[in-house]
Amino acid sequence: DESSYWKAPDLKEINDSKKLEQVTYGKELIAHTAKFLGPNGNVLKISNGMNCQNCHLDAGTRVFGNNYGSVASLYPKFRARSGGVEDIYKRVNDCFERSLNGKALDTNSNEMQSIKAYIEYVGSNVEKGKKAEGSGLKDMPFLDRATDPEKGKAVFQAKCQSCHQANGEGIMLGDGSEYIYPPLWGAHSYNDGAGLYRISNFAKYVKFNMPLGVTHQSAQLTDEEAWDVAAFVNSQTRPHKKVPNDWPDISKKPIDHP
Question: Within its chain, how far is the Cα of 37 from the centroid?
């Protein structure tokens, strides 16, 4: 039943015009990050050309689409990757430095303040300390065999290549301002410090969201196809990020993180 899942509040419900302006700009920054902050960004040039929305679908509001439903309610929180308590600023900048293979935003900047305001607003209907139903990624079982990148390549060619292209380079808007379909590997994709570089995260993400239009209730890929295509994509070349301080407590490190 869809009604049991978290649904983001409507921006139209904001009465304060200043707050509405800030939250609306935050949403734009999430949906069209590259226009403002990408290689040809009109505010700063600090990221790889992908948009936050490429991984956080529908500007972070899609059920099991890596949404922001639980961010406001659960942050600040301890994260084992950094080994410390992180606030929303740190979490957002992690994405800028890893998934967007770029530089951190100044926390006092209008852009960061607007992104934070948007993330807090969409999660404002979730009780503090609670996890929104349908937030994050939907779990799926492990395979009883190793993943197979060769099988994954066949899945990619059949199901993914029409949008993401033969060399994973994605498709750009005609004016070069942002991607219509993001690059999955190569120089303009997420680096090997990113969350989606974990094969389990990638598999869950594609299983319940891809090809575009699929929902968690109407998956098109089998579990095997999702795991194999994750193995294929994540075995391609991408930028390397030095992260010697990740997982200071190695016993907390997930099995599929480099």
Answer: 16
Q: Give, in order, the Cα–Cα distances in Å from 21 to each of 105, 113, 143, 183.
A: 20, 12, 47, 31
pLDDT digits (tens, 9 = 90+) for 29-44: 999 999 999 999 999 9
| Element of type H or E holding 121 | helix 110-122
DSSP string, 30-84: HHTHHHHHSTT-SS---S-S--GGGTSHHHHTSTTSSBSTTHHHH-SEEETTTTE
Per-residue tokens: 205: 């993400």
- Please give the single-letter amino acid code of residue 114: S
* CB 36, CB 111: distance < 8 Å: yes
Q: At what angle do helices 199-209 and 223-234 cross, to 10 degrees?
A: 130
Helices (H) and strands (E) in the chain, counts: 10, 4
Count other C-beta atoms under 10 Å from residue 163's C-beta: 15
Question: pTM for this one?
Answer: 0.95
Rg of the chain over CA atoms, in angstroms?
Answer: 18
Nearest to 100 by CA among 57, 55, 66, 65: 55
In whole angstroms, give the CA distance from residue 188 to residue 182.
9
Query: Using an 8 Å Cβ cutoff, are 126 and 72 in contact?
Result: yes
Retrieve residue 24's tokens.
Answer: 């609306």
Q: For 64-110, write each residue's pLDDT tens digit.
A: 999 999 999 999 999 999 999 999 999 999 999 999 999 999 999 99
What is the CB neighbour count within 10 angstroms for residue 129?
A: 9
Residues making up the chain, counted from first to last: 258
